[in-house]
Amino acid sequence: MPPENNDKTIKITLDDLANVTAPENDAIAPVQSTGGAKVYGSINEPADPQTQVAEEKGSILLQAWFYLGLAGLIGALIGWGICEPWFVDGPSRRWGNVLIVPFIVALLCVGFGIAESVVERSAKKALTRGGISLPLGAVLGFIFEFIAGIIYAIGISICVELGAQTERNPALWIARGIAWMVFGAAGGVVYGIIGLSGKKMLYGVLGGVIGAGLGGLLFDPIALLTHGGAPSRAVGFGLVGMATGVGVGLVESALKDRWLYVTAGPLAGKQFILYKPRTMMGSDQSCDIYLFKDTNIQKEHAIIELAGSRIMLRAIGQTYVNGQPVRQQVLMSGSVVQIGRYAFRYQERQRN
């Protein structure tokens, strides 16, 4: 039998609704996240907060123009310091006069060859690259000094024909600057060879030519201000080395197409320009991008491949893109890649 009140309708009046109150202890309580922030929940759940890494402030020490400039300065001063005790002013010449420029060029090349590896704290890679850079730089030092000598002699003869009589004439400074562009080109060649990239070599040569040309232009004015001798050579050659390194770093950064900017981790602030068709990332020092001080990172953890106009990330170990775990992912400009304690922002140069 159906109940007697089966046909009765339940009626709720406005007065009934007005008298309804929610108990205070039933309020939605916030959940404390691992980072200390209060999370109230969402119908669109975000990625695991543990996969999100806060962006860190980058160090100027990791900027290419800075560490290459410093490497050029140190290399030039070491080369000068080796040869200066056997260098004589005047018409007579000793072995220091003959070898000072090739030595400086060779040690510039060594500095450029190992600078990035030193910054990345890869002693193994620095030793390998230094071992290649030293003989290569020495050979190029002698060859390029010969070429620069010819260019300088031609430049001086032109200046004399135009009426330049003393070393105070700026035309002679320009002649030296043009000739010494050759030394910057030598550093750029080695920089590209060590990096196994023709494009890197091109950028290195262009930056080296600009930097060394500027340094060579200022060499004679410095000698005039310091009244010649050892101090003027130290300052002049040091400036040439530093300007060459800064030029290489600035030109390379200005002309880059695709790169990873490190936003978190021990290398925060450094950028890795993607020159090669295949870039390996991992905790092995032989990797193109060496990720140290993290036991969660495998020796070969991820690969970035250039496939035409696309950049493909292939993960071997645990890798996140924009907070989501991935195995294979096409990277778009602005994508954030996280591997262990490191985070990278992939960027592309905008094309018109």
Give the arrangement of secondary structure elements.
Layout: H1 14-18, E1 31-32, E2 38-39, H2 64-83, H3 95-119, H4 123-161, H5 170-194, H6 198-225, H7 230-255, E3 258-264, E4 271-273, E5 278-282, E6 289-290, E7 302-307, E8 310-321, E9 324-330, E10 336-339, E11 342-348
Parallel strand pairs: 5-6
Antiparallel strand pairs: 1-2, 3-4, 3-11, 5-7, 7-8, 8-9, 8-10, 10-11
Helix pairs in contact: 2-3, 2-7, 3-4, 3-5, 4-5, 5-6, 6-7
Structure, explained:
The longest helix has about 40 residues, at about 125-160. By secondary structure, this protein is an alpha+beta fold. It is built from seven helices and eleven strands. The protein has helices at about 15-20, 65-85, 95-120, 125-160, 170-195, 200-225, 230-255, and strands spanning about 30, 40, 260-265, 270-275, 280, 290, 300-305, 310-320, 325-330, 335-340, 340-350. The strands form two sheets. Strands 3, 4, 5, 6, 7, 8, 9, 10 and 11 form a nine-stranded mixed β-sheet that branches. Strands 1-2 form a two-stranded antiparallel ribbon.
**Cα radius of gyration in angstroms:** 31 Å
Number of continuous helical runs = 7
Amino- and carboxy-terminal Cα gap: 81 Å
Strand content: 15-25%
SSE run: HEEHHHHHHEEEEEEEEE
Shape: elongated
Report the biggest beta sheet as strand number plus sense, adding barrel if it closes.
9 strands, mixed
Q: Share of helix among residues?
A: 40-55%
Structural class: alpha+beta
User: Residue ranges: pLDDT <50 for 5 or more in a row?
Assistant: 22-47
User: Count the strands?
Assistant: 11
Mean pLDDT: 86
